């Protein structure tokens, strides 16, 4: 299980969203409020952000808990961005992938995170692995369910699928192969956000020219809105569109 957050809008210090709020992502690493599985998210963290004029995001990731990284606290005070994706990780199964297993995953202009788990991993997704070219499987950053789900999404994006369709089709495909999978996916290209609510909580907050999408609210602002389960979300600064997701065929 994990917690994650994406933002698009006017430039803001990373720490203003990830560290400073009363129930920030840093606090969610040790005291999540709406998490349905697991009690802490201390198996790594990461943040990706976009610098002005550069479409390729930068990342900072660590293997320990977010609250223990004072270097990131210092960066979060001064680094500003108009688009970011942050995540704290709670490992589903033991592994030795370290920093490589921490979201956000990245390729081209994209940042991606997965909040949830795939039952029976890796055996449950063996058939889906056969649908990817060998080069894409060998390029996996980590041997985790999240990294593999990212490979499925990225394959669709590079084939020309729109972000919401890439996420929706991947969710249905994985849910069919692994019933009971929790698949809250979060994706941004620095201008828009796409996400799915499938088995875990997802919320959004909009304001003038800005949108935040997160596993759970980082404060008590009454404008936070919960996304219904089985929904794909698409967002740009100040605007959110929700579309129901169909269950996979029996």
TrEMBL record:
Family annotation (InterPro entries): EgtC, EgtC-like, EgtC_Actinobacteria, Gamma-glu_amide_hydrolase, GATase_2_dom, Ntn_hydrolases_N
- Which principal EC class is assigned to this enzyme? hydrolase
Question: What SUPFAM superfamilies does its record include?
Answer: N-terminal nucleophile aminohydrolases (Ntn hydrolases) (SSF56235)
Record organism: Streptomyces roseoviridis
UniProt keyword Ion transport present: no
**Gene expressing this chain:** egtC
- Protein name according to UniProt: Gamma-glutamyl-hercynylcysteine sulfoxide hydrolase
Its keywords, alphabetically, are:
Glutamine amidotransferase, Hydrolase
Keyword flag Hydrolase: yes
